[in-house]
Amino acid sequence: MKCSARGRNKRRILHRPNFYSQIMNNSGIIVETTLRKGGFEEDYFLSIKKIADKAYEILEDKKAVDLEIIDISEVSVLADYFIICSGTSTTHNRTLADELAFKMGEAGYNMIHMEGYESARWILLDFGDLVVHIFHKEDRSFYNLERIWSDGKFRTPDELDERDIIK
């Protein structure tokens, strides 16, 4: 990730240098997002789908409960996809997080940040354009992220495998 100063109160952050750039003010608020042209968009969106599909597969293999994929690319600049799931206990939640971080790293998708691992009631794993939320059942119903992000498109793993571009 490259950072360079632009003007007195702005800085430019290139998250994906070949795909898009974002300009943020000093408070960390994104004031402009520019998608680069030239044939990169298709590869970019297909690679995000592959990352989300891989994460879904790993969580499914470890018996995550109530897996949901939400495409938030048109709703937010935070990420392109959320995966929300539940574990059966705090130990299961930690196992899901450990396995996801390990296997995604093996596949070349490095985790940027993890939150909530100590309490294991709500673990958030940030892979850049994919954010995974692993909840304890009671906490998931309390926070109800599916309702908060209901403007996004709920996807199935089969829809991620399709070769169309989500815009």
Question: Brief overview, please?
Answer:
The chain has 167 residues and is an alpha+beta fold. Helices cover 33% and strands 33% of the residues.
Structural summary, described in words:
The protein is α+β, with helices and mostly antiparallel strands and 167 residues long. The chain contains five helices and ten strands. The strands form two sheets. The chain has a six-stranded mixed beta sheet with strand order 7-8-9-6-5-10. A hairpin with a 6-residue loop joins strand 7 and strand 8. Mean pLDDT is 76; it is low at 1-19, 35-46 and 163-167.
The spatial strand order of the largest sheet comes to: 7-8-9-6-5-10
Q: How many DSSP E strands?
A: 10
Total count of helical runs of at least 4 residues = 5
- What helical percentage do the residues reach? 25-40%
Which structural class do the helices and strands define? alpha+beta
Low-confidence stretches: 1-19, 35-46, 163-167
Q: How does the overall form come out from the CA principal axes?
A: globular
Write down the secondary-structure element order.
EEEEHEEHEEEHHEH
Q: From the alpha carbons, calculate the radius of gyration and give it in angstroms.
A: 17 Å
